[in-house]
Write a structure and sequence with these properties.
This protein is of the alpha+beta class. The chain contains one helix and seven strands, in the order H-E-E-E-E-E-E-E.
């Protein structure tokens, strides 16, 4: 009887130990994304200020370029081991919409094409 109780207790402890071991092998799958860039007019090579920049996968995550054409977006995203790139859409009146992927911690120069 006592041996049976000890065996049952050992089985429970083994399951807990295995679960804790496996859980510690898989750290959080969330990652902190931080992308930035400068938006430039493709023809004139001048910076484009006040362009709307949006994380395509998060409607609430958006920004505008400043007077130097710079923008920055930050987000929490799922990703096992590596952060995935962020898909960004850039719009401004009289320019073609530009959608691209920017690697995490990327700082890209993006050229917008003016619509004739």
């Amino acid at each position: 009887m006592i041996l049976k109780k000890i065996a049952t207790c050992f089985k429970r402890l083994s399951k807990v130990a295995i679960t804790l071991t496996l859980a510690s092998c898989f750290p959080s799958c969330d990652c902190y994304q931080n992308v930035s860039g400068i938006v430039i007019d493709k023809r004139t090579k001048q910076v484009v200020d006040s362009a709307y920049v949006q994380n395509v996968n998060r409607n609430y995550n958006n920004s505008f370029t400043n007077e130097k054409g710079h923008f920055e977006l930050k987000s929490i995203s799922g990703g096992f081991r590596n952060c995935p790139p962020m898909t960004v859409s850039i719009t401004k009146a009289h320019y073609e919409i530009k959608t691209l992927e920017i690697e995490n911690r990327g700082n890209d120069t993006i050229y917008l094409q003016r619509i004739n």
